[in-house]
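Shipment paperwork, digital attachment
Item: protein structure file
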Amino acid sequence: MKETKCGKGKPMIKICFSGALLFAERSAREQIEEKLSGIIEANPDEEIQFWFHKCFSLFSMVAMLAIRNLKEKYRGRRLSVMNVVDPWKAEEEKLTKKEREHMDGFPPGAVDQFLEAPLILGKAENYETRFIAHSRKVDRWVWNQCDYMIAYYYRNLPELGRNMAKSASKIVGLTVIQIYEKETEQLLEEEIQALDEFELELIEDVRSGLSYQKIGAKRNKSYQRMRQQTMKIVYRLQHQVRDKLMLQGKCYVREKDFRNFR
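Attachment content:
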């Protein structure tokens, strides 16, 4: 188990979550509960902490729903939801805990503890428009504190969640547990193979590990242009798959569906 400033002297297991897909399957909740139950039961004497840096993605909401159910199932266990607060500009906001919970996307009363990340400063922090780059730094800090990551992604779709899980898997002491559905993976592959020749070749290049710089050089295009085109294709693929899953009643629709933990 990893030790952090907040965890010294206390045996605990820390678990974070990662997923950036535009859809979230209903079966994901069951998978999360199964994986987390295994960890909880394998560590009967430890406190289990669930670490979140904000809670805006559909997958984060599904994870919160699973955690709520686990708290009911394991009432005698110490299970805590941790909201990792970014101290950068936090002083300017001066929020109450209730306001911070709401601003960071959590359902009311869901957060058990607030934990301040270290102040991370660099080139990105000099520009207001680079807030995403800064947020990724805090994400990486969270990964480095945790023992497990529950990651929702598909290996055949080159999107942010897949890239984050791949990066996190290189961290010593962090076990990445993938959540996915084989049928959806197959559906994604069918949609990918139905792309036109140019788009399919572009996706295949990215999936093979080629950098956008090399992909751009291959087509006499800029790095930025190739990355933008790929992201548009991936975004469209996710919408197509989400629409089909929704027609089958297999996925949650939007974040607001979780506000009352339906």
